[in-house]
Design goal:
It is a single chain. This protein is α/β, with parallel strands linked by helices. The protein folds into two domains: 182 residues, Rossmann fold (3-Layer(aba) Sandwich), CATH 3.40.50.2300; 127 residues, Response regulator (Rossmann fold), CATH 3.40.50. It is 50% helix and 16% strand. The protein has 13 helices and twelve strands. The strands form two sheets. The protein has a six-stranded parallel β-sheet, sandwiched between helices. The protein has a six-stranded mixed β-sheet with strand order 7-6-8-9-10-12, with helices on both faces. The longest helix has 25 residues.
Amino acid sequence: MKREVFAQRRGVFFVIAWLVALFAVGCGKGEGGGGAPKASGGGGGERANIRIAVVTHGQASDTFWSVVKNGVDRAAKDMGVTVTYNAPQTFDMVAMSRLIDAEVAKKPDGLVVSVPDPRALAKSLEAARSAGIPLITINSGGDAGKEMGALIHVGQAEYDAGKGGGERMAKAGAKSAICVNHEIGNASQDERCRGFTDAMEKAGGKARVLAVNATDLTDAQGKIGAALTEDVDAVFTLGPLGSRAALGALKAAGKLGKIQLGTFDLSPDVLAAVRDGQMAFAIDQQQYLQGYLPIVMLTQYKLYGVMPAGGALPTGPAFVTKDNAAAVIGWTKEGLR
């Protein structure tokens, strides 16, 4: 069995085992989670009164965040609780902080947020903590979220994931690369590029960051295409928005499959490119779990006062390559990967 497949399955098995243990503790009404609410039973009627708010920086129309929302929606149904999902129309921290403030004012039983810019969201998250609202961070802002009172972070170590991508490209012969950042100011994206750049430089190569606005596909593709006229033998993107522009630029330049291309996160276009050998790999952080698990945990926390220890629940990274891309494609069609 290939290492990538094993790594993915090991992560899934861990999560399944963890959920089984969590439900076992919950159904037994055991005590736990120091400082947590009192256990209060788990009847269906009581669950129906639980309300959890989710606020992320990514829109549900985005192929990545639509999978997160699918996880949120499925968990809400499985748990029998009410969940709202909100996000600003664009990457806008002012708008996002207002959305958080609006949810805090409603005093939900739990709050789930991504934290791409800790400084910009600090005041809103502090208000949640002051109001005694249990908080879980997802996707971005793990360390910062913990400082702001988050019970746990569900996501991946972004620097390490970026470093892993750089190591793969360097091992395959890349010497001069660009890291395409489509959300400058997003701390997680910055960490991905930093890890990638460090890995390339450690291997004796070089890498630089190329900022693009991926919501303007034509502009992003043009900037990447211009960079390809330089001495570039590898392109690393930070999500499907960036990879779509990179695929277009490489195709237009006649270099598709000739210049190494790797990306974060999955989409139908990304997986097809990996399967067809046009892209070397995609880094999978299993964002469905980032939506699903916090709803389960906050429900159990409200009912029984239990919460995993350790501060972080990693959902990635795992690497999808040509060897296992076909198997993953089926899950993306169902909105699970």
